[in-house]
## 1
Amino acid sequence: MLKKISLTLISILFTFCHGYNAVSSTSLDDVMNGKCTIIDLTYPLNSGNAYWPGASYSPFKYETVATLENDGVFSGIYSAPEHLGTHIDAPNHFENNQISVDKLKLEALIGPAAVIDISTKVAGNADYQLTAEDIILWEKSNGLIQNGSIVLLNTGWWTKWNDYDKYKNADENNKLHFPGYSEDAAIFLIEKRNIKGIGIDTLSADYGISSDFIVHHIINGEGKYILENVANLDKLPPNGATLVIAPIKIEGGSGGQTRIWAILPPQ
Ligand SMILES: [Zn+2]
């Protein structure tokens, strides 16, 4: 009997320490009591933020419209493309008959993070694409990607965040060069693992020179979302963190600025 109780205890502790119960009521107490480290995965919005360099896209703008000195209240007005800074691509971004950003279920926006680091491979090849083999290799060390995970790709590209030209890395023919997910990796995650969404520390889940945006089509086509320009992925463990994703609620929107944070299990 004692043996059975202690085994149960060990299994509970194992689960707890590995973060699988990170959104249980016990862990929410820990979060509220400050026992968990919370990491902000969001860049602050400013005029230097990277955005998809498409026609009619423009930088973030902010203008003060009232000041305490003159008006007794401080207030501003801002504008930004939906696909600027840390943001979400809603399923309708690349596919018809898919939901807009305001329709994303809140349950889909919370889940365990699986963080895959390919920065070493990217250091030698800016056009590197995560392969299905990379994911399987990650799983050999970290266990299978859990049901309902959000997969985050740390390509190391975040080191260029403060320089938009280096970040989009256009060549003389205006082709962009930065890493992304491969078609095979996207198919593997959709067909073999029950993920809620994917994220990356670059401008796009498809690598820069993509012209068919196949990864967007695969992920959005399954009603899943994509997080882009995600910050601080180097500060996350490969697994054990719980993500909370809070997109702006633009009615009918294709995505938009999104606050994302990761809750680490209590030490
Ligand atoms: Zn986007």
## 2
Amino acid sequence: MTLRTATATIDLQALINNFSYIKQKAPDSKVLAVLKANAYGHGLECIAKALSQFDHQADAFGVARLDEALALRTAGINKPIVLLEGFFNIEDLDVIAENNLQTIIHSQEQLITLCTAKLENPVKVWLKIDTGMHRLGINPEEFQYYYSQLTTSKNVDSSIVLMSHLGCADDTENKNTDKQIALFEEVTDGLSDNKSLANSAGIDAWYSSHYQWVRPGLLLYGISPMQKISTTQVFSHSSLVPVMTLQSSIIAVRQIDKEEPVGYGGAWKSDKITTIGVIAIGYGDGYPRHAINGTPVLLNGRIVPLVGRVSMDMITVDLGDSSKDKVGDIATLWGKDLPVEEVATWATTIPYELLCNISRRVQISVK
Ligand SMILES: Cc1ncc(COP(=O)(O)O)c(C=O)c1O
């Protein structure tokens, strides 16, 4: 008996396809590929290496934490790496300088620490302006002060990148994006420094946000960043191919009578005699516990509904009364033929969370 435990198959050809899509959408921009959170659950090293080869090379990588950047350097990645939250401690600065990393500056604490540090070599900086998302970034009125401090500091490399982040670009009807782009234009007007604003949704839907650097995350992984997208629209967005396909085996097939409860709390009961399939994946692997009855699972060429509560290591699906499914059959939880966007909707979350939550015990198989 050989059964597959939860496996995420990573399709590097799909990654390259999505990268080419980004280059088509933003042909004049350099690409900073966002690899934070283990490359959105896909495996930091393998994604970075695939985007460092031949003619589909990212120009830089973006991560959230110093550890992620150092893991890339240890893996032999020599490309520019940007810390998207900047540095957290004064000690980080030496490590940043030694490893030729780049840092965002978004706060006064960071500005003072950087400008007063004793560094061997200057550090390359991305100055983050808050244009309306109100998460990280300096206020537009403070821009001149920060800009003059940074451009006159011996600790700062002369080529600064001016950046901001879009909060609502996934909704094409939201007026905030136009306002953010206009404010970014106004604050950075007349400056010849490189600029960066677009995340995946900006790349896909807001051409005027592209500037010299785009910063795709989700699009790289073949997933639409746009809100309110139906499964049909996902399939018709034929330019993107999901990089991850998450699968596991059926480990038991059980007949149950009408009205018999299934799983913890007996939260689901069938209204007829039916067959239940038990699949070896649960919230311990990253399958969302909040997925409700009816969440689609792809099995033997058809969709079967999740029934009952998601357990730590297993889920149960209703195979129907005439099922021919058997132990060992492979179920797809999301991927090429079942968009993660759709599963996320059933679990009242977003694809980003499902991907990042893939846990360490899931086997990663790169093809
Ligand atoms: C500063 C910054 N740029 C770009 C991205 C990539 O976003 P997305 O995955 O929506 O393309 C992120 C991710 O949250 C980010 O924090």
